[in-house]
Every structure is written in C-alpha cells, then in structure tokens.
Amino acid sequence: MASTTNIPTMSELAAQGKQPEVLFWVGCAGSFDERAKKITKAFVKLLIKADVSFAVLGPEESCTGDPAKRAGNEFLFQMQAMTNIEVLNGYEVKKIVTACPHCFNTLKNEYPGLGGSYEVVHHTQFLKQLLHEGKLKVKGGSFKGKRITFHDPCYLGRANNEYEAPRAVLSKLESELIEMKSCKAKGLCCGAGGAQMFKDAEPGNKEVNIERTEQALATKPDIIAAGCPFCNTMMTDGVKNKEQESKVAVMDIAELLEQAQDL
Amino acid sequence: MSAYIPNITFAVLFFVLVGLFTRNVRRIVRNIKLGTSTNRSDQPKKRWLHMARVALGQSKMVRKPLSGALHVIVYVGFVVINIELLEIILDGFLGTHRIFAPFLGGVYDVLIFTFEIFAALVLICVFFFWTRRNVVRIKRFWKPEMKGWPKWDADIILYAEVVLMGLFLTMNASDYWLQTVAQDSHYVQAGSFPISQFLLPLFDGMTAQQVIAIERTTWWLHISGILLFLNYLYYSKHLHIILAFPNTYFAKLSPQGELSNMEAVTNEVKLMLDPEVDPYAAPATDAVPTTFGAADVTDLNWVQLMNAYSCTECGRCTDECPANQTGKLLSPRKIMMDTRDRLTEVGSSLNKGEDPNQNTLLDNYISREEIWACTSCNACVEACPIAIDPLSIIMEMRRYLVMEQSAAPNELNVMMTNVENNGAPWPFNQQDRIAWREELNT
C-alpha cells in the first residue's frame, strides 16, 4: 500500500513484477509548476487515503504534445504522442487518471488514433467515483456554508461534455455552489487554452482572465474552484489583479476535497 | 392560342428562374468540391438523428429563447406556406385557379386558414427581427465584419419576406372579395381567410375588373418574387435554409475537443521512429500532400467549405468568443465569412477561366493576428445553431504557419523547443518531474 513516503513509479513497480490499477498522469504543470504541484500532492494524498492502487511515470512521462498541437505543430505533437504511447503500451497501462484537462483530452481523444487506447478519466470524475463508492468520505465542516463558484475548464466541459463530476464533488462539501453568469456549456475560457498560456495575448482591450475573474467575483465567492492547473494560474492572476487575494482563494477540486478530509 | 399566353409565360418564367437557380447550385457544389476529402459517411443513424435534432428540430437555435422562438415561427411558417406554392405552380402551368380546392374540401379551408395565420405571424416576427437589428441594434449585428453587403443582405431578406407575405395576403383578400362580393364564377368559393378578410375594405367601390386585376397582379408578383428570391440565395447568407441540413448531417460527431491527427504526419513520424526503415528508400509519390495545413480554401476540406456557405452570420459564435469579447481582432463569424468570400472569388475566377491564385485566404482575407488570438476553447463551435466549426479552420491555418512557414510567434517557438528538448513546455530538467514526491514528506 502506498503512503506519502513510497509513491511508486511504473518502473519501480515493474521491477517488482507488479502493476497498478491506474496510472496517475501528472502532466507538466503538475510536475513543475509550483502552484500546480500543490494540486498534485493533494490528489496523491486522496489516492492514498482511498487506498487506490496507482503509480506515476516520473521521469518517463513527457508532455502529451497538446500545446504543440494547438500551436499548429502536428509533427512535434505526434512525436510526443508516439513516444508516450510506446511507454504506456510498454507498461500495459489500462487506465489513466489526470488532473489536467488538456492531458485528459489529448490522451482520451487523440492518442487512440495513434495506437494508444486507454480508459482516461479526469481527476474530478475519479474523485466523484471514490466518493460514490465510499472509499473517500467527507467529514464536512471546513467548507460548510462557504460560497464556492466553479470555473468550467474548456477541455473538460465543452471539449468532453463533463460538467457534472466536479459539481458532484463540490456538492459533498456542504458549501454553497453559486454559478457564474456564463457556466457549463457557455463557460468563458480562462484565456490559457490553445497554447495562449505560453505567449502574450494579441492586442485588445482586456485580458481574457480578467474578464473571467470579474464574472467569478460577481458571485461574491469565498473560493473560486478550478479543475485545471492552467485555469488555476489564470484565475489566481486575475484575483491578484483585482486585489482580492486576501478574500478569495482559487483552489482545485482536489485541494478542496483534501482539505475537507483534513489529511 | 392566345388563351394559353399566361400558361406559356408562366412556364418560361418558371423554367428560366429555376434553371438559373440550378446553375447556381451546381456552382456551389463545384466550389465545395474544391475542398480536400474527408470521410463523413460513418454512423449514418447518428448523423440523421443529429440533423433531425439540430436542423429540423432547431435544438440549438432555441438556446437563446427570444430569437429562437421568433426563428422557429418564421421557419415553420416558411415550410408550411411552401405547401401552397405547389398549388400556385400547378395553377400557373395549367391555367387553373385553386386547383386543390375541389379535391380537398374542408381540408382546403383548414390549409388556407393555417397559411394565413402563419403569414401574419411571420410578418410580426420579421418586424421583431428588423427592430432587434436596426432599432435595438444588438451588438453582434454591428461588429466590423457586418459593414456593407452583410448588413444590406440581412435587411433585404427581411424586406423580401414582408413583400412576399404582403402580396400573399393581398392576393387572398382580393380572391375572397371576388368569391363573396362579386361572386365571380371563376373564383370558386374555397378557403378560409382569417387575416386577409380584414383587407376587404381596400376594395370598396372598385369594379370586379379592377379587383381581378389586383388579384392577378399580386398572384404573379408573389410567385415571381419567390422564384427571384430563390436566385438571390446564391448571393446571400440565406443559403442556410438549404445547407443547414447537410451541414448538420456531415458535422463532426466526435468530442469537440478532439483535433484530427494528420495522417500524412503520422506516416512521416512513424518512419522517423522506426529503426528498421530504409532511409534511402524512394518516397511513395502520394506520401506527402502539397501543403501541411491551410493557406487557401482549396487546402480546407469540403465540410469546412460547406460550413462557410451555410453560415447565416448570426454572430452567436463571435458573441461567445473570449478573444472577441476582450477586444481582439478575432471573430469566428469573420473566419467563416472570409472563407466564403474567398471561395466565391475562386469560383468566379474559374467561371471566367482566370487564374484563381492571385489571392489566398490567409493574409489576403484572414490575418495572422486573428489566427493567433484563438484559445481553442470551442465556445464558437458550441454556440453555432447549425454545427459550423470555425475552430477547425483556425487550426488548419496555424498548421500551415508553423509547418510550412515556421512562422509561429517567438514565444511559441520557445515553448515548442522546450517540449522537444525537455519534454515539457518549460525549460526544466526531466529528472525533476517527480521532485514533488520528495517535497510531499518535507
């Protein structure tokens, strides 16, 4: 059984002749970005708490190629994809969970055509399932009565039609879920998708993340919940820009659940 | 012989205008076929259902309740009133008057009753549409790409509908007067006229001859107007009344987030990664397409080109676009309008036997600034009432810029170099991917 001191990699397990039930695909943001690493840690703690048989790829994981593909570089995307598929198929991976909707979308929809077919779930879907099965229980308390608004990630929502799982997890917190002016299928982008995360925006009269943050702040939330490390960054920056960071926290669904668990 | 002049005139009018329409349809089909191939013959059952739900059932149209409801009424009215068109055409050819009346009896009354109610409803809806556009001036109708012809086009369609419905009701009113007041034997007692009966006072004091003249004139103007409007479609955004159906049938059915994998690239990458490949083998002649991505309409696939002809310029896509909402140049509607305009230009060059390659869609119509402003969020795709996919065109142009021209914005080149060298978009050491594991215990 995994504990925080011995989170296995696929290669470590393979060396022992073992195979986990699910691979946690951490993603580049979850691996390197200081803010997103906190989400990774929170999610891992939940996996351990729920006694999930899992492993990570560690240094064998590489960018899915999503930002390259959305930037127009199909060559680089497919190089990344085929290299990753070779690794995943080598370990005979069946099921993948990831906390990044961009990795989720690419692994789920774009890898099968290149020879990589897996059951791919977003971490909010996985957490919903763990709660449903009773493997995770929320004691409630810390978020009770708090006003929470959820920002739909484009690549989970519109791209893959999943609006319900993150809300189902949030509903367990006994907090007050308040929807923004545009939510679910009409949810406004945070501004990071399509490789925009890595470049300056084109000239305009506003940054997209400011527009979205204004919509979120209009719900007078205590917490803006996110389900994507990039959305998280954009919304955090937006809240700072509006000088609301002392009042409004931007937190991933996994972090909220982990804190409610008081792990 | 002279008794047949109206029949002959009608036949000539009908065949000339329907013939012109057929020529235009052929041109549109030819232009759409200039696109590259893509297979959309899979899952026919799902496709029929999608078309039934989205085009026939207007399911996405009604997401905006007011404009949705107005549109549904005009749409149903259009379909219903066109049943009457069949009778009008038969009357025209045969020189008869209300040919269906004797066969249908009471049903005929119900039909005419329904047509009149819908004609009135259409007039009311058109008034609201015009008001929304020109008095309320809803923002999406006044974006920069709507200047000039697109603005005219939208108004002309509304005016045409008013004229056609007005002619239809006046025609019925004069007919009703001739049936009841003049009791002219040619005008059989048939039909029920809940709306046009209120127009009867117009004919007070007129002779039967004068009213017959009005009835004949409105009859001819009405059918000529419809046949002319049919030919106007080719020059108008109004083509959606036909193309919305194939457009929803052939739409992408996979998750919106899925961006197609380019097969030509797959073959190349497989060769690169395969240690057993012979690097000196002669490449297959059809291995690589002429261009990666799209610089012009002929690089886009036929569904994307059909999308362009189907666009009604409603602007719901642009309204939802995060880039457009924050003042960037990008407007998904403009992407579709530019694609159509460029395709029309290529088509008319072909008609004249000229070289169509003076311009290209990219740079002459769509700027790079627009292409790079997209966040690929799919809001435009989600918003379109008839399943148009502007995002796919934007992505094809990015592919062209990056793979053919190496013309990505510099920051994106940095990101891509990082992915290539470090397996991540940032310049971190690959071995540190699992650094969080150690941090978890400290």
Secondary structure: helix percent of chain B: 55-70%
**Helical/strand content category of chain B:** mainly alpha
What's the β-strand tally of chain B? Answer: 0
State the end-to-end distance of chain B: 105 Å
| Percent range of helical residues of chain A | 40-55%
Strand order of the largest sheet of chain A: 2-1-3-4
- CATH-defined topology of the largest domain in chain A: Rossmann fold
Distance between the termini of chain A: 17 Å
Q: What's the average pLDDT of chain A?
A: 96
Radius of gyration of chain B: 28 Å
Number of helices of chain B: 19
Rg calculated over all Cα atoms of chain A:
18 Å
* Series of secondary-structure elements of chain A, N-terminal to C-terminal: HEHHEHHEHEHEHEHEHEH
Overall pLDDT level of chain B: 94
Overall outline of chain B:
elongated
Helix/strand structural class of chain A: alpha/beta
* CATH architectural type of the largest domain in chain A: 3-Layer(aba) Sandwich
So what's the oligomer here? Answer: heterodimer
Shape of chain A: globular
What's the main sheet of chain B like? none
Low-pLDDT regions of chain A:
none
